[in-house]
Amino acid sequence: MTTTTRTILFALALTLGACGPHFGIDTPDDFVSLDEGTQQQRGYAMRATTADGVVIAVREIDDPRRGTRDFWVEAIRNRLRRAGGYALLEEEDIRAASGDTGHQMRFGRDESGRPYAYWITVFVREGRVTVVEAGGRREVFDEEVEDVRRAIASIRIQ
Known about the structure:
By secondary structure, the chain is α+β, with helices and mostly antiparallel strands.
């Protein structure tokens, strides 16, 4: 194999590796992964759901300007409260299995007279923002809340 061939293969391997997800997460047993094509169309790197509609999803956002975690938390908080009609109920710092510290915001919202829960956990590392979203109708979300907490805590950011 020539040096040029090795260089091309190495560059291709780096490019392909950069396209894949930069995280691992343990989804609960009663969650089923959704179709990858649909996920990518909606900007998700991963989505899984229960039969009752509780969803856990992960988005990865390139951030070449390297905004701080505080910047991203404030931007998401403002967007959901002002434009989305969500009420911020609680927030706290979260530790990922990879050791990264994230910030979790727990929102609530009523839709058609039914309360919904929506959690967003934000991790920022090396020009990339990893956002873990979880949500569903409040009554069924509350039944899954411990599994959702464990799944979020299991994330391993690379």
